[in-house]
Fold this sequence. Notes:
The chain is of the alpha+beta class.
Amino acid sequence: MTSLALELGSRLERDGYSAAVINPRFIKPIDRAMLEAYSRRVAAFVTLEDHVKMGGFGSAVVEALEEMGSQVPVVRIGWPDQFIEHGKVDDLRAKYD
């Protein structure tokens, strides 16, 4: 997902938006210091994951920010909370986007 996020970040920069791409490398333990630092500087967080959103990285970000008292919105991009058949990622993205 990092390459997709970097591509999106570049597009946003070309369109005049400031964007930072952070590769979390792992979900647990979540990097609360990084989230807190960025929550003071950003208008929104966008998380990308290649599995269901519920219980994933985006959920962990939402929970951590809520515990910090942050009001920064989080847009989570991933699969819906349902059975997702196996297949090529591009085909699944086309079906569930």
